[in-house]
Amino acid sequence: MSDQLSSDLASLKIDRSAPRPKGKSPVGAIVGVLLLLGAAGAGYQWGLPALQSAVFKTEVDTTEVITMSPAQASVELTSTGYIIAQRDSAVACKVMGKVKAQHVRQGSKVKQGDVLLEIDPADQNASIATAYSQAAAARARIQTAKATLAEIQQQARRAQSLAQEGIGPKGAADDLFARAASLQEQVKASEAEAKASDSLVAALKVNLGNFTILAPIDGTVINKPPEVGEFVGPQPAGVAIDMGGVQIADFSSLMVETDVPESRLSQIKMGGPTEIVLDAFPSKRYRGKAVEVTPTVNRTKATVTVKVAFVDENEGVLPDMSARVSFLSGELDKAAMQAPPKTIVPGTALVDKNGSKAVYRLESGIVRLTPVTLGPAFGTGFEVQSGVSSGTRIVNNPPADLADGQKIKERNAG
Hints:
This protein is α+β, with helices and mostly antiparallel strands. Helix content is 31%, strand content 33%.
């Protein structure tokens, strides 16, 4: 039994002389694990922001590139409005008919009394000729009635004389006198008819003047007049259908009509200087002055309309143009008026990218990194020479991780 136990114990000894089996080193496994962890960390570090920018919208504050003039420092109030002609006229035809001749075109300058249109008067001339004929016929009937009356009166006197001498019947004389009285009434009726025909001729002649459309004021034709052959007529009240009128505006009476908040009306001074900038010519400025505050208040908007007149020539200004009016604390000098307005970008919107200045421009819910060329400093911003234009919406105080093409959401936007 002991021999068997000794033999079993001997079999459990480790043979130190046997060759060591081949296998993987644990160091390689450790290195592989470390590489996988590093790749995961790098993916988290760099891939997560890209994923967030593609899926989630970053909230940002926005601002706008603006145009500022040297007069900006003296601006007390700014409002917008439209160019309105204070003297204009919508010339409508008083009669119906076809246009025979067109003497003006859109944009033509006219003087009071100038011929604008001629309406074909053929029907009117025919009516006048008919009235003349009726008047002539009435006069002919007068002459005939007078001749018959004279004859009957002579016969009545002769019959009366014979009756007095007892030669003829007295009744015959009475009948002739009665007929003479009837003829006298016929003469009066024919004379009245002739006067009526003359009055009709006069009225038709007056109406004939309505077939020639004249300019009631000096001004410029601002609509397209009806062409030759077009049918025109009177403009019914309350009907928007154009019946072929001509619209004239006096450009020398152009003013800006702007709505000013009722609460700030005290800042408007009659005769006070203003600066007018038109949307059509943003680089050009006009001197103006406040000339009238309309005596009505819009209760819905709590505004009052103020009229601003041009001080200088208003060449190129057209009715219904949009305008921005700045009410100033002092008069602008000539040098300030000639200085062009500057396009200004806020300094807080600028970022440094690749050694140059840029802004993040808003475009349909995403941002576009846009390089800009800057000029001199202007207040808290800089003059922009290229890259963006006035009115461009940009990101203000952009986050450090904001990227080109990233989706954004405007903070406090509805």
